[in-house]
Automatic annotation (TrEMBL), chains A, B:
Gene3D superfamilies: ATP-grasp fold, A domain, ATP-grasp fold, B domain, NAD(P)-binding Rossmann-like Domain, Succinyl-CoA synthetase domains. Residues 486-522 form the ATP-grasp domain. In the N-terminal section; belongs to the acetate CoA ligase alpha subunit family. Signal peptide: none annotated. It comes from the Bacteria. This is Acyl-CoA synthetase (NDP forming). It comes from Roseococcus suduntuyensis. PROSITE patterns: ATP_GRASP. SUPFAM superfamilies: Glutathione synthetase ATP-binding domain-like (SSF56059), NAD(P)-binding Rossmann-fold domains (SSF51735), Succinyl-CoA synthetase domains (SSF52210). Keywords: ATP-binding, Nucleotide-binding, Tricarboxylic acid cycle. GO terms for molecular function: ATP binding; metal ion binding.
Length: 696, 696
């Protein structure tokens, strides 16, 4: 996918402003005022039929009269005139447009129709179009400000290599404004409005491609175009550009609000999570975490095996930091014994393990800060080094000495993340930062941000295993019976429990004889999906007499509870005992297509929701990762003296299921294998019940 | 408990400083310099045998020579001299001491012995003693600064009614320093050091009692004195003073650091959580949340049924806020239909449900801000009102108008929490705050803080149900057999499954005949606690022959696997089917005594850790709350067409167990009832297996 097609939109040499205003407070005037103030390095062509000049720049009556083809057109005229402007730009040869104009799909059906016409015009001319109903964008490196936000009243963005892509205009500028207040540089902000043509994925892709951006912040309410979105995530990962994302609309309430706001298709949040994980995107829990992580990532140090070493002047903070690291699975290995002894030699009452409590003594003999730091980096080998110095590190007497001591060690080890928690004036913080330190006020946030760098590092280094070869799949015309469903799955490499569809009681007796007792008997009907709810499942059928009795019981119950159902007979299956019950499934996400699920079987999947998801298809290594991520995994792994289950067979079935779902195409609406019986190691895993939902 | 005994320590009329220094940078000099700078309203008596005056204040050679009895003595002399100072203060009649001196229990055994002598001296004279090895305290309202922190270099605390009680000196001052940077007033900070005499509970109790403090922040690594601690939490709740607490040392790593730091007894974190919940203490996840909640609580508005109404200029922020509220179970009811219609009349394209997106239009017609606000408060009836105005609310032109519009509504409804998310200069934030608004930059944190106010409100309003009457308990001399254990529990109101201890096979056959098949058979021995691990449990015993065979099988297995165990025979019990398996338990917390637990039975309690705890004893209403708090509660509540379980019987058994544990005294080391079989509604709940652990 070629994301450079947004270059004329975000990094243009010239811009035409259709609806240019001489009034710098109006939406057609603000961009011109901003670009003048920030020294836009290209040419501005105001288009306004009523004025010879706009804000002291020569204006043109229409697009056709422009002396050259502008790279991008900014449209700030209402209604139909906006569509005409797209047409005029297209005829002029312009390949990009930014549309402020509102009143389209976000309003009503009529607006949606107008928006469709606008998109058609843009596509006819090969125009990449941002909006309509967008706040615009800025690219500060070239002074480019086609945006009508009033947020610049409080100050211009700080130069920097963080890009922000946001589906919400107000929230996008909220984030950049918070960044500015915190002294964090955000060079590019793009807000996408109605996403009639350019969607979030395009913008992320452009940032992944652009040399102007190192770190990407994203705010999303719903992903519309999975292909571009996934291509963008892939490119970002290949270019080692971390993406940190706020994805909202995950709650029921939130979902409702998201719909009324931009008619977003808010995909299932668990699916979003799985997709973001797959590409190493880190999801921020709130705006501050978003900025903390982006700020930390600007160092571009992404350790693959990230470890945290902590030096502290407060035992209490050390405990707090350990708690946070533990909750994040962020390893804090102990210092080597010899190094601990050495540190004890410097300060007898220090706690040299990790966290290393150097005590206030280290600030009385400031060279000890250097000794401790060097030992932690060189002997402890930590990739993330965090010092909790609080106001002691912010004192005017201490700060220059602390900086000098630590800087000497940092110079020898520029590949580490150097972070400090200090309370200091903004000026002093800037001095520390100029030396290369990352500065946080609070240790909890510092630990979370440092931990994210390792998650990026792992994602950048990760190599996915190959999914199983795509099986040849011919789906039936409609939802099949359980037996037929299991035949289809068995052919795709998901074995089922030995069983037979029996049209009459003699066939049932023969099957039971062959499989051995006990057997399970289930009513067989394409019209009854949830058999247990009508009493259509009999367990522990232990004798030939019981088979006979069971056959008539099932038929009677089906006749009573589902009188209209077509009954094909009874399924007889070997009853397997001592297996661990798991559930596998496929759901079709409206955005990301087939997604596989694994969880503990039975009722626990619905009550405890201990499940893992991944986009199809994927290989056995990924399948095993999903299985190991379950809270209930110890049940498969020999908890409390149970035999270890055949996780390899389970992973193979899951990977095969993912390949099946990917090959089956969109008519496969869902698969529900529950339970899948996992036997002890080496003995396999077998589907005991399976429902395939087919769209006719 | 009389917490006023700390008045002379925290609110004294006079202070003697033993080891007073003329050098304002030394630990014996800093407090004097600070009190001079802050205008201490009492008398300072420097004690220094070498100087006639210290920092221009008349000094005295020793405590005995002081012209009057000081309310409190501050001890800044090393080693044995500190103990002598306690003695001298005692002889002078002083009733409070603050001991900076280090080198006691935090160092080694010898130090611990010296500390014990110091405590003995204090107790002999009725002296309340803070420390040793503490950083001190300050009470800014009277300019009292017996503290040697260097944190004041960056500024004095802001006057205010938040008190901070901290077991860590450095972390305590870190919190107050962050508060100062955020413009939050913290009037009192007390750090407790080694807690040789005064512990965290005393300080919390003093803050609960003192008219100087409205809101209490606490930082704890380990609770040492549960009696004072619980009395303090109780007093705070009765006085409607919210406590927000950071309790660290909850992870394995954290626990290790806590121990090396102050040799704390870090109680089980789940127990701590249960105790804090019981008293309505809100636990903060990090320092910022601690301060957010304390800041919000200074309004002293604690709604019992807290609802959140949100007005926003950004649909995106509305979605984000809804997500956060949902994750916290913070209700956001929709606006009444009529009110929604009215708001649509003001702004046709607004989203009037809740979040109410008033759109940027409201800032063009500023009186709409007032209309929207009044409708939300009066028609929506929200107790927590949050406006997301970001930089629009921070603009110099908008801010005064927004404030005026909202203030008019606030004046009519001062009982609501009025919160705004704006990005503005510090000065402008102070102006908003002066009007009575709570100001946050980020909506996520605002929602969490507002939500905490409702949790306080519920805790203040809560009336605990009476626990069952304490049963008469006579514990056996040592851990009893299962049968004896169940007899004891049955007597205490926790019924057991029908069963009989059978010394020989004939008794077993008679019991099985009486109960009906199937039965369960279990080996009976006081020496075998985990029967299933030696194959000592037989299920589905279905015939008299099987009883015979089972009896010999169990004896053979016990002989093989536990040859030294004393075997009393076999327990025969009715096998109950179709029940939900739960687990009840009692653990004896070293700090808080007996604590009851309830969870899903079987293997899930250990793997999934879905359990609830509460300090014993408690009533059935509290027991039911615990049961309902389980993630697996739907299993008891008719999930997937199952019959509803007898939750009332389960709650009664749990409450009775709590009363039993409270009455049994410290020899009861633990109880483990797993499974407790809960039958359908009205049919009861029966212990199927029970282990009582008795300390001989």
């Amino acid at each position: 996918m070629d994301f450079s097609t947004l270059d004329p939109m975000i990094r243009p040499r010239s811009i035409a402003i259709i609806g240019a205003s001489d009034d710098a407070t109006r939406i057609g005037g603000r961009p011109i005022a901003y670009m003048k103030a920030r020294g836009f390095q290209g040419t501005i062509f105001p288009v306004n039929p009523k004025r010879p000049s706009v804000q002291d720049i020569k204006a043109f009556a229409d697009v056709a009269s422009l002396p050259e083809t502008p790279d991008v057109g900014l449209i700030a005229v209402p209604g139909e005139a906006a569509i005409e402007a797209i047409e005029a730009l297209g005829q002029k040869g312009t390949k990009a447009a930014i549309v402020f104009t509102a009143g389209f799909a976000e309003v009503d059906e009529k607006g949606a129709a107008a928006q469709a016409r606008m998109v058609a015009a843009a596509k006819r001319h090969g125009i990449r179009m941002l909006g309509p109903n967008c706040l615009g964008l800025f690219n500060d490196a070239i002074g480019f400000y086609p945006i009508f936000s009033s947020s610049f009243e409080q100050g211009w963005p700080i130069a920097g290599r963080i890009g922000i892509a946001s589906q919400s205009g107000a929230y996008g500028t909220h984030v950049y404004s918070l960044a500015r207040k915190r002294g964090i540089g955000t060079g590019v902000v793009v807000t996408t409005g109605n996403e009639a043509e350019v969607a979030l994925g395009d913008v992320l892709g452009w940032m992944a491609h652009s040399p102007d951006v190192d770190v990407i912040c994203a705010y999303a309410e719903g992903i519309r175009d999975s292909e571009k979105f996934l291509a963008a995530l892939d490119l970002a990962r290949r270019n080692r550009k971390p993406i940190v994302m706020m994805k909202v609309g995950k709650s029921e309430l939130g979902g409702a609000a998201a719909q009324s706001h931009t008619a977003s298709i808010a995909g299932d949040d668990a699916v979003t999570d799985a997709v973001l994980n797959e590409y190493g995107v880190v999801r921020a829990r709130n705006t501050e975490e978003l900025l903390d992580i982006a700020y930390t990532a600007t160092k571009r140090i992404f350790p693959v095996q990230n470890t945290l070493g902590v030096m502290t002047v407060s035992g209490g903070a050390g405990v707090l930091i350990s708690d946070v690291a533990e909750s994040l699975d962020f390893p804090m290995p102990a210092m080597p014994e010899a190094a601990q002894a050495k540190l004890r030699g410097f300060v007898p009452f220090c706690a040299p393990r990790n966290p290393v409590d150097c005590t206030a003594q280290a600030f009385n003999q400031i060279e000890l800060i250097g000794e401790f730091t060097r030992s932690m980096v060189e002997e402890g080998g930590y990739t993330s080094c965090l010092g909790f110095f609080t106001q002691v590190g912010g004192s005017k007497t201490n700060a220059p000495k602390v900086r000098a001591q630590m800087k000497a060690v940092m110079k020898d080890h520029p590949d580490r993340l150097w972070a400090l928690c200090i309370i200091a004036s903004d000026e002093m913080v800037r001095e520390y930062e100029a030396d290369g330190f990352l500065i946080y006020e609070d240790p909890t946030r510092a630990v979370a941000a440092l931990h994210a760098m390792g998650r990026f590092g792992e994602a950048f280094a990760r190599v996915a295993s190959a999914p199983p070869a795509a099986p040849a799949v011919t789906l039936p015309a409609k939802t099949p019976t359980e037996a037929e469903g299991k035949r289809i799955l068995t052919a795709a490499g998901i074995p089922a429990v030995p069983e037979r569809a029996c049209a009459d009681v003699d066939q049932a007796i023969a099957a039971a004889r062959e499989f051995g007792f006990p057997v399970v008997m289930k009513i067989l009907s394409p019209d009854i999906l949830h058999k247990s709810e009508i009493g259509g499942v009999l367990l522990d059928v232990n004798s030939l007499d019981a088979v006979r009795e069971g056959f008539s019981t099932l038929l009677r119950r089906a006749g009573e509870k589902a009188p209209t159902a077509h009954i094909e007979g009874v399924l007889v299956a070997k009853q397997i005992k001592g297996a661990t019950e798991m559930a596998l499934g496929i759901l079709r996400d409206p955005v990301f297509g087939p997604v596989a699920m694994v969880g503990l079987g039975g009722i626990f999947i619905e009550v405890l929701k201990d499940v893992a998801f991944r986009r199809c298809p994927f290989g056995e290594a990924e399948a095993e990762q999903m299985i190991r991520s379950l809270k209930g995994f110890p049940l498969l792994d020999g908890a409390r003296g149970r035999p270890k289950a055949d996780v390899a067979a389970l992973a193979k079935a899951l990977a095969n299921l993912s390949a099946f779902a990917a090959a089956a195409g969109p008519r496969l609406a869902g698969v529900d294998i529950n339970p899948l019986l996992v036997l002890p190691e080496g003995e396999g895993a077998y589907a005991a019940d399976a429902v395939l939902e087919i769209t006719p």
